């Protein structure tokens, strides 16, 4: 039985973002151009999503400079020093939306890259944006129960591997509609203009750090609404007329590229109608379960795929009669792009590094996942 008098703290952060930031005018040099009409889509989408820089594990010739595994391992190494060696890590919990193989798991591949580490427990979560939060919750519970003393959670993405132009058909039929309905900018090729690469690792321990700020985990809540709604974002599959998914193994190999089976796709109608609604609903469930007042927080860290959703979230708060002034909001989407599972950790790391957090501050992290509408919320206290 868990002793709830115990506490778990995030005591260290380590980031690894590959190469130099890539500005909006440079993107095609790295990921290529599908066709000339893509330039119009790019201008419209970047005007809505607010992103000015992102990171690619690519050089200007579109060649990979780092793998997902290498970026994750580099972030983990950044946590170590004379006080924490690789062979002192009791648990390695990994999350990613972009694993580079079906098997072995992403987690054990990261462990294998960590030369100098020892035999240890490894767990691996794959899926979409919530996968890093799933890894964090596992590491949290493992430390809370006393099963581990030094648990490392690392989220990593190499989404650029899916974004190079050679993998896409000429899918520009929606471009003329983007001005009227910018939500359409989230289909297939259009996702290319917001995704980013990188990794962040955090160290969890049962005592706070002595010399720096720590973040005590009060709770982590996750849920899925997949039982209520069909798939919204997917890759490696095709949606049939009944709304179900048919996976890549159901198709002849010759059709994998013809059907763009391995491109990332979203059902934009489902996204627009549900992504904010379900997030507000889950927050209300947490309010009742935890006797939690959202207005009591000092910092709100929402994982945004695009600034398009910022105003919609504000309206959702107003619908539930919560005052959440923008002075409490913190996100870094414009400067690092949408890094999927990495984004919540990257926000917290940058906020910590900013020096703006005071002891006693309460931080609410929100992570929506449109794949089949999963959500994560976490409450932390700086100490």
Strand order of the largest sheet: 5-4-6-7-1-8-15-14-13
Number of structural domains: 2
Structure class: alpha+beta
What percent of the residues sit in helical stretches (DSSP H or I)?
25-40%
CATH architecture of the largest domain: 3-Layer(aba) Sandwich
Give the topology string: H per helix, E per strand. Answer: EEHHEHEHEHEEEEEEHEHEHHHEE
Highlighted features:
alpha+beta; two-stranded antiparallel sheet; 9-stranded mixed sheet; Peroxisomal Thiolase, Chain A, domain 1; 2 domains; 383 residues; 10 helices; 15 strands
Can you give a write-up of this model?
The protein is α+β, with helices and mostly antiparallel strands and 383 residues long. It folds into two domains: 9-212, Peroxisomal Thiolase, Chain A, domain 1 (3-Layer(aba) Sandwich), CATH 3.40.47.10; 217-226 and 268-382, Peroxisomal Thiolase, Chain A, domain 1 (3-Layer(aba) Sandwich). The protein has ten helices and 15 strands. It has helices at residues 27-31, 37-49, 68-77, 106-113, 131-144, 255-258, 268-290, 310-319, 333-336, 343-354, and strands at 9-16, 22-23, 53-54, 91-96, 121-126, 151-158, 197-205, 215-224, 233-234, 237-239, 245-247, 265-266, 299-302, 362-369, 374-382. The protein has a nine-stranded mixed beta sheet, sandwiched between helices. Strands 2-3 form a two-stranded antiparallel ribbon. It has a two-stranded antiparallel ribbon with strand order 9-12. Strand 14 and strand 15 (374-382) form a beta hairpin. The chain is globular and about 55 Å long. The chain starts with 8 loop residues before the first strand and ends with a strand.
């Amino acid at each position: 039985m868990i002793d709830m008098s115990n506490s778990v703290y995030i005591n260290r952060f380590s980031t690894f973002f590959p190469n130099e930031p890539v500005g909006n005018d440079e993107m095609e040099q790295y990921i290529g151009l599908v066709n000339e009409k893509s330039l119009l889509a790019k201008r419209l989408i970047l005007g809505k999503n607010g992103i000015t820089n992102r990171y690619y594990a690519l050089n200007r010739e579109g060649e990979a400079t780092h793998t997902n595994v290498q970026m994750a391992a580099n972030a983990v190494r950044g946590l170590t020093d004379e006080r924490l060696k690789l062979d002192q890590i009791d648990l390695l919990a990994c999350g990613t939306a972009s694993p580079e193989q079906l098997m072995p798991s992403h987690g054990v591949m990261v462990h294998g890259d960590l030369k100098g580490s020892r035999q240890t427990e490894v767990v691996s979560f794959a899926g979409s944006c919530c996968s890093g939060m799933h890894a964090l919750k596992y590491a949290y519970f493992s430390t809370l129960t006393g099963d581990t003393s030094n648990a490392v959670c690392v989220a990593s993405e190499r989404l650029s591997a899916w974004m190079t132009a050679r993998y896409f058909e000429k899918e520009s039929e929606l471009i003329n509609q983007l001005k009227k309905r910018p939500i359409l900018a989230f289909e297939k090729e259009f996702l290319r203009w917001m995704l980013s690469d990188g990794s962040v690792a955090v160290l969890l321990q049962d005592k706070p750090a002595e010399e720096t700020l720590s973040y005590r985990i009060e709770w982590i809540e996750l849920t899925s609404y997949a039982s209520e709604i069909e798939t919204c974002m997917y890759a490696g599959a095709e949606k049939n007329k009944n709304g179900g998914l048919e996976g890549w193994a159901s198709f002849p190999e010759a059709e994998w590229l013809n059907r763009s089976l391995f491109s990332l796709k979203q059902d934009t109608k489902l996204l627009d109608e549900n992504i904010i609604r379900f997030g507000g609903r889950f927050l209300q469930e947490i309010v009742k379960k935890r006797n939690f007042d959202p207005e009591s927080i000092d910092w709100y860290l929402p994982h945004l795929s695009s600034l398009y959703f910022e105003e919609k979230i504000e309206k959702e708060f107003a619908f539930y009669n919560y005052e959440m002034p923008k002075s409490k909001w913190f996100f870094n989407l414009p400067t690092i792009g949408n890094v999927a599972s990495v984004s919540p950790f990257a926000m917290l790391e940058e906020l910590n590094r900013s020096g703006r957090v005071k002891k006693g501050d309460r931080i609410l992290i929100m992570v929506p996942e449109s794949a089949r509408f999963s959500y994560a919320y976490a409450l932390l206290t700086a100490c």
